[in-house]
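seq:
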Amino acid sequence: MTNHSSASRRQFLKTIGAGGVGSAALLASANTATALGGEPIVIGAPLPLTGLVAADGIEFRNGLEMAVEEINAIGGILGHPLELAIEDTQSQGDDVIASAGQRLIDRSNASVLISGYNLGSSTALPVVAADASVIYMHADTVVAHNELIKSDPETFWGSFQYDPAEIYYGIAYLQYMRKLIDDGDFKPANNRIAVITGPIAYSINIANAIRDGAADYGFEVSLFESVQAPTSEWGPTLAKIRQNPPAMIAVTHFFPQDQAQFMQQFVNDPTDSLIYMQYGASLAAFRDIAGDASEGVLYATTIGALQDEIGNDFTARYLDAFGNNASSNGGGQTYSALWAYAVAAALAGGAGQPYEEEQNRKIAERLGKLIYRSPVGTIRIDPETLSAYSYPGDTNDPSLGMPHIFSQIQNKAENGYIIAPAPYDVARFQQPDWS
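struct:
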C-alpha cells in the first residue's frame, strides 16, 4: 500500500473503533477483552491478478489489503491478527481457479476464501470451500451460484455471494430506460435497442433478459450481436449499428478495455444513441483508455461504492492509499466482504481453521443473519440462495438491500455520478454530447 505516512490515515486507524463507524465499532467492542497477539488468521484470496480481468483483480487485492490493515489496527478478530495470502487465478477457467483455491487451503492454511469475481463456471471455488469446510465469499454476480446453493444447501452452506445475481441487470436496464423516457429526461429518436454481448454466461444472461423483456417495456431489439473476448476491432458491429441506428445501445460484454475501444471507435461517427455499458465502465481503467469518449456513458452495477457519507469516506481513504487512478468500486467489494466476515467471526467466537466444520458453520450462521451496512450498501443474505438481497429488486427498503445503482460518466477525470435509485442518486441524467 502507499502513503503509509499520511497523518490523517494514521489518525483514522487509531480512532476507527470509537469513531462511530458501525462495523469497526462493533468489532472493536468485541476485541476489548483480548490483546492483539494471538495466532494469525489467514485470509485466502483467489484473485485474477493477470489476464483479461486483471484491472479488477488488482482492485480486489487493494480492498483486502486495506481491510486487513484497518481490522488489525483495532485488534484483529478477538486478538488474532489477519494475514493475507493471495493466489493468482490468471483470468482463467475452473481448473486454474480451483487449483488456486486449493493451494490457499493446503499451503497457506486459509481460514476463509474471499474474492471479488472470477471467470469460469462459478462452481469451482464453492466445491473447494465445501471440501475444506471453510467460508467462501465472492461477488461473481451469477444466478449459477443461486442454483448451486438451492440444489444442495447442505454441501454448500459456506458459500456466500455478497451481491445480487446478474438476473436483475436486464430488467432493471429496461425499467430505467422506460423511466428516463416517461419522465421526459430522454427523448429517443425511436424505440430500438441494439444489444451487444460477449461469450461469458454473465454477459449472455443479461443480454438475453434485455432481448426477452424489451417488448414489455415498449422497445424493439433491432440488433442482437455476440462478440468474442477480447476484442479491439468494433468496425463490423458499428457498421450494423450505423446502418439502422437505434435510440439505445446496451453493451453487456463487460471487459473495460474492450468497452473503451468501442467508445473510441463509436465517437468517430456516432449515431443518436444512448449508450449503456455493463459494469466495466465503472472502473477507472475504462475512463483512462476511452478518455473524452467515456463522457456520457451510462453503466450499472449491483455492487459499487456509494456516493453518500459512508461511501465517500471510504473512497477518499482508498484513493489516498492507492492513488487517484484506483477504483473504489472494485476495491469496495472485497473490503466490505472481509469486514463482514470479521464481524461474523468475532460474533461466532473466532475464526475456524480449514476442516473445522463446527466453528465455520457458526460463522456461516452469523453471516447469514448479519445486516451489514458497507461502503457498497447493505449486505443482507437471502437464506434460500445465500446471495445478497437487491434494492429495489427484492426489497423497497434501501436499508435492507444492496442498491442496483445506475451511474453516468460526466467527467472523464472522475467516477460516474450515481443517477439512480433514490435515495442514493447525487446527480441528474445528462444528454451525451455525441447525440
